[in-house]
Design goal:
By secondary structure, the chain is of the alpha+beta class. The chain is built from two helices and two strands. Helix 1 runs antiparallel to helix 2.
């Protein structure tokens, strides 16, 4: 949809840029090639630059630096609650959450 809107806008701009030459020809017969092609080339370059700027930014996922250890006082042991979650790709992953010491 954005590309269509950009194309229509550039077409109108190119037509408006060349319209000034239509009414001021007193010396000869018609349109020159440069009066039509140059505005279209400029519009194409501008449209390509706009389209290139609309690319999404890359997603950076930071991985954990290392294993996390939990310590409890001498007679107790850490225990975890196992749950499942969905990551950004729709996959189900196992998540062990520290619940306390027993």
């Amino acid at each position: 949809m954005r590309k269509l809107l950009a194309l229509l806008t550039l077409s109108v701009a190119a037509t408006g840029a060349t319209a000034q030459y239509r009414h001021h020809h007193h010396h000869g017969g018609g349109w020159g090639v440069g009066q039509v092609i140059v505005p279209l080339v400029i519009g194409g370059v501008v449209g390509a630059a706009i389209a290139r700027n609309n690319e999404p930014a890359p997603v950076i996922i930071q991985q954990p630096t290392g294993p996390v250890t939990y310590s409890c006082p001498a007679p107790y042991q850490p225990y975890f609650t196992r749950t499942y979650a969905t990551d950004q790709y729709g996959r189900t992953i196992q998540v062990d959450q520290f619940s306390g010491c027993r």
